[in-house]
Design brief:
With about 200 residues, the protein is an alpha+beta fold. It is about 35% helix and about 15% strand. It has a four-stranded antiparallel sheet, with helices on both faces. Helix 2 packs antiparallel against helix 5 (about 105-125).
Length: about 200
């Protein structure tokens, strides 16, 4: 299953194919592919080259480890994410290594790393669904995450599919057309909410 974006202006085809399914096929991810996804994340840009991202992963083939990570997700996310062959937690280092000052870019940089990972996944026929719905305290307790690190997000990784156990509402989300705000609503020039010339129709 694929959903292709319909951009208003030409962009790379890889970007049009990237989407975040709720449904995943019952198919493992090869270790070489999985390694490549996190290698792509490793090469993301970061402020001061701090590379504040950390990941904890679990494969469904390791049932105990998978369940422990799955238990860190909100119940609504567990309902569909349990079908993914791989789950991961995204964690950020709060402070800069050299100075100990707060790293204001840490969460931004985790996002860049996951964007790299997501595009590498798309190029390999895989999909990634990101979640903010996690229990940070449970993550911290379950995986002994140090205090200077912040559990932030989760990822479900796999091949898009339609497991029969998915709720109708979730299936409808997967089948609905992709959409985005127009450029005029997000790119301004001169004043707030004044669309930039490039965003004009």
């Amino acid at each position: 299953m694929t959903k292709i974006a319909r951009p208003d202006y030409p962009i790379q085809a890889l970007l049009t194919r990237r989407w975040s399914p709720y449904g995943f096929a019952d198919r493992d991810i090869a270790i070489d592919d999985l390694r490549a996804l996190f290698e792509a994340a490793r090469w993301a840009p970061s402020s001061y080259n701090e590379q504040p991202w950390r990941f904890i992963i679990a494969r469904r083939s390791d049932r105990q480890a998978f369940q422990r990570l799955l238990n860190c997700l909100w119940d609504a996310n567990q309902a569909w994410a349990r079908h993914a062959p791989v789950l991961a937690l995204g964690i950020v280092k709060r402070e800069l290594t050299q100075t100990g000052a707060a790293n204001a870019a840490a969460e931004h940089d985790l996002g860049l790393a996951v964007a790299n990972l997501s595009l590498e996944a798309t190029a390999r026929g895989l999909s990634v669904h990101q979640m903010i719905g996690i229990d940070p305290d449970r993550v911290r307790n379950s995986f002994a995450v140090p205090e200077d690190y912040k559990p932030l997000t989760a990822l479900a990784l796999g091949y898009a599919g339609e497991p029969p156990e998915l709720a109708l509402e979730v299936l409808q989300r997967d089948r609905s057309a992709r959409s985005r705000k127009p450029l005029a609503e997000i790119v301004f020039a001169g004043a707030w909410e004044q669309p930039a010339e490039l965003a004009a129709d």
